Amino acid sequence: MKARSTKHSSRYFFLLNILLCFLFLKGSNSRAEKNLPSPYEESYMLNTTEIAERKGSIDLGNYTRTPFHYEVSSSMSGTFGAFNLFDSNPSTQWMSDKTKLPPWILVDFKEKRLMNRVDLSFPTWIYKEIKSYEIQVNVWGTWKTIFTNNKVKKDNSHSLPGMDASMVRILFPKSTNIHLTVSDYKIFLENSLLNGIPEELTGHSFPILNGHLPSESHALPGAPRSYRNGFHKGVDILYTRQSPSSEFIPLTKETEVLATAKGKIIRADWNYLPMNLEEFEKQKELTNTKMLTYVDRDFGGRQIWIDHGNEVITSYNHLSSIDSKIKVGATVKQGQVLGRVGNSGLKGEAEGSEEGIHLHFEIWYKGEFLGKGLKASQSYQLLSIFFKTY
Predict the structure, then answer these.
(1) Burial profile 244-280: b = 16 or more Cβ within 10 angstroms, e = fewer
(2) Where in the sequence is the domain holding 372, given as residue range(s)?
């Protein structure tokens, strides 16, 4: 009887231990769902692509008010990555994965900033599903809610008491198990945007259909040049493809050049005169040995300039021809054909060859070429934002 009693006791304690372990794990999961993980703690290993979609930093020199880092709780894909929250383009969005944990968005300036306004925008098809969200600051390692919005609209602007903070997080406590989608997340000090770029520097389409934006430093704005006072002021586009999934092929004189956005034509070189080889070599020698003070024979060749308003001007260079509808003063639509790619102004044209065919494309903003003073990686990131229309 004694041995039997001991056997029953062992079974009892075994079952009791299992029950206690179950209750402990359940309680731990419950607490984990209530307490958001730190934005810098990982509960699973991320591959490089996932990290790029979830976190990053933006430092675009004078084109952003200040450098900042960002991170989100999850991201569905690269197309809907966190970067889209800060490009000032309402047609691009961040979309979270479906998870049991509340989604969040974090901006970290890495140093204290004065701020007094937060704006959030959502696509029309999602905002009614969002019951509420909280604006939070980090106080000695703990997230503190300073404002709760229980009446979410498509576009939301919240004036806050002036505060001094380095990190601001948006928490969506009631948006679990959905693909939460947000268009823009902006932090302001009065009217100064702290975590994005001006709206006029986005939403342009690429000037070549299915064209390739180069990442090589020599093809980007700010690259050293031995002529024109030493700097490349645009981006050199050399390749296109028949479809988004096909191989890249070189541009030809049949490749159409397209307006990147609506605007007014302010220059169209209908009276362009090409240089012969002797004239080209003389011009090259002059620009290599003397300070350029006036461009009388232009290496940019046949050009079109468009004023898009908001102090944004685009310039299309080396064209082989100009479309008959393009006249100074005319208004063009986004995607309208301006002309065709060529090598005008270059040695290839001067000697009658096909050498050097490409589109040299410039963006001028507030009287200066876009990308001045930036590193190649910064210029590439800025151009990637500029050419975002989807």
Answers:
(1) eeeeeeebeeebbbbbbbebebeebbeeeebbeeeeb
(2) 217-386
